Input
Amino acid sequence: MDTIIEVRDLEKHFGSVVANKNISFKLKQNKVYALLGENGAGKSTLMNMLSGIYKPDKGEIFLKGEKIIFSSPKDAIKNGIGMIHQHFKLVENKSALDNIILGQYNGFFVNRKKIREKVMGVCEEFGLSIDLDKNIEDMSISEKQTTEIIKVLYRGSKILILDEPTAVLTPQEITNLFRIMNNMREKGCTLIIITHKLHEILEISDEVIIMRKGQFIEDVITSETNEKELTDLMVGESVDLKIERVVVPDGREILHVKDLVVEDRDRIKKLNGVSFHLREGEVLGVAGLAGSGQKELCETLNGVIKATSGDIIYEGDSLKNKTPREIIEKGVSMSFIPEDRLGMGLIAPMSMTDNLILKNYYKQTGLYLDRKDAVIQGERLIRDLQIKTPGIHHPVKQLSGGNIQKILLGRELDTHPHLLITAYATRGLDVQSSHLIYDEINKQKQNNVGVIYVGEDLDVLLELSDRIMVLCDGEITGIVDATATDREELGFLMGGKKLEEIEGAKHG
Amino acid sequence: MVKILKRKEISHGGKIGIQLASIVFAFIFASIFILMTKNNPVSVYFSMFQGAFGTGFRFKETLINAIPLLITALGISLAFKMKFWNIGAEGQIIMGAFGASYFALFHGDLPGIILIPLMFLGGAVCGSIWGLIPGFFRAYFKTNETIFTLLMNYIALNFITYLQYGPWKDPDAYGFPKIARFGRNAVLPNLMGIHIGWIVAIILVAWVYYFLHFTKSGYETAVVGESENTAVYAGMNVKKIILRTIILSGAVCGITGVIQASAVARTLSVNISGGIGYTAIIVAWLSGLNPVIALVTSVLFSAMVQGGNFIQLSHNIPSAVADILQGTILFFVLGNQFFINYRLQRNK
Output
């Protein structure tokens, strides 16, 4: 088989930081490659060099045996390398067709009919289906992704890089994406997929390229490996992948949410009739596609946004019209990590000490703000949670995602909450940091803390939670026992099927 | 081809190096215009320095002009720390002067020891009200404070014109539309040859520095500035914090008006501020909202203006060229921000 791309000794520095070093591998046609590595292993840097966004400091890239130098992403596209970014680069209020042809024609007139035929041809060839006249803003995430793929294929790319394409999809949508990827492989494309989910790598890829600390580690044939081996190679040491589910005897009920309705400014219902309860020492997993109401649920429980109707009973008291500060004082700790990680829980340009005092500074008397305790607390957290930082006075935004998360978690757990709400607590964290957080959650559970764990990785939700509540469009589609359900069932619930319907289908 | 890349971080030395280089380049570039007037740039720059610091009198003038710049920059820094873009310092200065003038004109028979504190109080209150109006609408209705504060300046300006032509017109001015001069009791006393506004300025430097760095309120101001979401999440009363901060900001700017009316103009007129409210934005920004650095920056800024005026006389340079010099220096000094945040890389 032909080698289509070869990289030799690629190296890239950012200041004194070595992002990539000694990277050499060959990619062949008609293959799917998975790129595996922890956060900060240099995957994005490598892909950015292949797609012309960065220029390597050293080393060479060969395309079909010819040495190539990209000075911009346009050069890469011209040479048939296209990238599908994790965050789609689409114009929201334009149709799929407009997005596909955007930037392609510099003439004054555009023959849309001819282009449409050509786009349809591409779709047919690769087995893609999409409504070309639908506006991006009306599309589901899966449809947006398909539009991105068509855009890249239409530009003639034969080598496609997909950056975490499955992170935001339901299991059913992932199956569909993999079908498309298989099609593309058969039609002579070379695909590189970046993902953290090992079972997906085993399912879709032919070979796995493993990176660690900026360096190329190994290139393994997928059919000859397994999850355990891949993780060990990625981390560099033997790791225990299993998340232990600590069993705690049933505690008393601490939180009861009754028929909660939350509307946004435009009076659109973000949560509709949500009812559930939570016991001490219980982990309630919350699953759902992005934007199904998880954010609103967390923020309403914390008092950041007000409920339109319904009630939240915590320890016998209603939290409904309480301010965030009154709720904090009641011992509800919310470690809420929005997509934009530093948007709410922490103040990005401030130091660790200034972030640690965020929720308790007001308890000090007088005008003067004392930071002495925060300094001691900060030093203790750095030790206990192994936070890597140049110092407690260093702006938190310059730390890596895992360390930022540890600061946030450390601050919240130090308040000894009775109810802990975490949203996407491990987003963007590597395997080891993630496990540190799962362990912390289990520890809290043993201390009789009720935990609401909003997550996106279904495997983690299944292993960590006691029960899983699935949200779709602001409504609960089902609350299931984590030991008695599976990925498929959760997938259907996330897609909007009600539990009764699924049960009915099973029996009927 | 040259590519622009964002810097991740910059060392302290690198930053100072860029800033010094920008000043050197500014002087080199400005030399072109001086040469066009057939003057020797070196001697022009030397006399600029002479004009600002050469004699005791000139040095005093430089300081007197630095005082309002400094105090206003402090007031602006308070609001800017909250990312509340207060462009309304000009109006707040004018209203501060108005508040002081009320006591100076209508209670001028009080002894200075009582009258002057009353004038400061009146000026601070009027300045803070002028800030509070846009602050209220920003906090409760999310209006754009930049436009709102800017337009408030014109209201203040025309309000003074109205007073000057109408109710506060001095009957003893032979029909000229002007407001009466303040009595002796209403004029700030001198200390070490300069009116005591400089002491007020230094106290305010210390107070604003303490407020921003060591008080709970200052901390809240900074948190709201960085992220209102985070502030709400932490249980802060965001509306209250916005109103408190803008009241303080307006009050400090109002104090500038008191000092200018009492010690410099000794009356109230539409020229009382003369653009200080806008120039101080540059001073606050150049100082990175740091009160101590603002102290130095305002003196240097004032020196640049004084020196620019002086060379018009000493070298017979047209005022337009002096303005070009000032503009060029500012352009380079402000432009260095670009090189601090970004670096250029040549494509091989």
About this structure: The first strand of chain B starts at residue 2 and ends at 6. Chain B touches chain A through 21 residues (CB under 8 Å).
